[in-house]
Amino acid sequence: MSINVSDPGGRHRSPLRAFARRALALGGAGLVSVTGVVALSGTAQAAGTPLGAAAAGQGRYFGAAVAANHLGESGYATTLDTEFNAVTPENEMKWDAVEGTRNTFNFSNADQIVSHAQSKNMKVRGHTLVWHSQLPSWVGGLAAADLRTAMNNHITQVMTHYKGKIYAWDVVNEAFQDGGSGARRSSPFQDKLGNGFIEEAFTTARSVDPAAKLCYNDYNTDGVNAKSNAVYNMVKDFKTRGVPIDCVGFQSHFNSNSPVPSDYQANLQRFADLGVDVQITELDIEGSGSAQATNYGNVVKACLAVTRCTGITVWGIPDKYSWRASGTPLLFDDNYGKKAAYTAVLAALGGTSGGGTDPGNGGGTDPGTGTKSCTATYAATQTWQGGFNGQVTIKAGSAAITGWSVKVTLGAGQTTTGVWNGTTSWDSTGKVMTITPSYNGALAAGASTSFGFTVQANGNAAAPAVSACTAS
Ligand code: G2I
Questions:
Q1: Which of 147, 184, 351, 383 could form a disulfide with 49 if both were Cys (CB 3.0 to 4.6 A apart)?
Q2: How much distance in Å is there from the Cα of 101 to the middle of ligand 1?
Q3: Atom number, ligand 1, closest to the C-alpha of residue 133
Q4: What pTM did the predictor assign?
Q5: How confident is the model at residue 4 (pLDDT cuts 50, 70, 90)?
Q6: Model confidence at 5: pLDDT above 70
Q7: C-beta of residue 341 within 8 angstroms of C-beta of residue 329
């Protein structure tokens, strides 16, 4: 990579953000608003829409690059599971990770990520099959014919292992040079097999897993420039000649030396007009505060404005694990607090920030009087072709409660792809989920909270049945 990394200096740590961080630490709630008033009244407010659900409302996914070795950290896993509905293994599927020794494949770290994603109904982007970097030295030592065999074998073995589990593969990554030449980058593949290695890789990939979308992925191609023109011409040529390609990934690593281009949306659109999907695959934007937030919001808006922009992946979850951590380029701070950039992304996706629950209530809650009770009220908050987001508002009666439980019964054919602000247990039919609080069980008399879920309608747009609320 030749992306410049700028250091924007010290972190912004406002008291409000510290408060929001505590809110997250206490249970993953949304941002806190008007905190003093909330604390004193003991009123819990509705929690916000997670990024993935908000993106689903726009017919998109919202993903994160994930490292297997962080999955055991609870803040990391909770944030991933709450907020995202797609993942990309950050390093675990690269050639050096899976085939360090010729024909000896090790999928254990990548498998961890894929199993995690599958258990949470998240899409997986496969990254990446053929790349000049993180390439074991034995590959570079092969003569042309052998290299061709090794490349096709690598694609075949890796894609076969994950067949049916990958939404889109970055089949070839970063094959073009930076600068104005529009030339291919020197690599063992380019130097020994010539330009044709790219289409050979795509053709092999299609034969192995015809259901996976096949992408070309690169950086510094985010605006119209010599490098993106070269990629554009390649994709156009592939489409003309019937070489299988389904999507182009725009990495979108931005900082002050490499800002969001003013023609970002136009560039995405011209690729989409070639008949491929476009995806924002490795988004991170160095900076802080409102400047960073504005940039993030603009990137999301650009994707939403392009019908074939099918999703956005940010290149990491908290700043501390970014490949360029000093630039604080991500949506969550080191304690998994939501940054201004998060709020801007959520707003651009049409989600609601909500109020979260009061995290630091020293003032006590009103115990109220009488028998514990609660009500559950359902509303569809977003609908789209193929699905909808449902929200259930739980309201305590005239006495404070410490827990609640509601059953949600899906209609025929319906499945859920995510539940937030609630803990789910399914009955044996797989149709009835009992939702109990994930952190938001304690409600003062008359106070309310909400949980939500995304439904894939599969032809049935009817509202799920929501039972009466049981208080404890
Ligand atoms: O460089 C940013 C990205 C540019 N596009 C392709 C992506 O695959 C690339 O990701 C980064 C990862 O985020 C880094 O985590 O690729 C780097 C390598 O080119 C990754 O860094 C490597 C370190 O260089 C290694 O020392 C380390 O062992 O990560 C490895 C695993 O932690």
A1: 351
A2: 20
A3: 19
A4: 0.76
A5: very low
A6: no
A7: no
